[in-house]
């Protein structure tokens, strides 16, 4: 059963980014289709970073990428838009790959309130967002694959 869309006007998305690896990650790039916020420039090993992404009149919709050494790019994207269920999307690319933000946005549009990739280039990413809140909490976790 699909989640009931948000009944409120989007206010913000609280993004909690957990780096559960043995290496710090550094901000690589960001794409904000709607809204604004300043993501942490880096997240230390076994720590959490926080981004408060403020909605504009169309919502809080964006994506960020962190690079882990010269190994991978960790991508987290979200959509918190009026009269729509909140969505998230994640992926892991090689560090040398170029990010296609249009493709990320298209995949986000097809996603739900949970997204994960397992054992991509030796890492796993899991992202979840409250499906109906106008001020949802997004939790993203990056870890080494088992």
From TrEMBL:
This is 23 kDa jasmonate-induced protein-like. PANTHER family: OSJNBA0024J22.15 PROTEIN, PTHR36482:SF8. It comes from Corchorus capsularis (Jute). InterPro entries: Jasmonate-induced_protein (IPR053085). It comes from the Eukaryota.
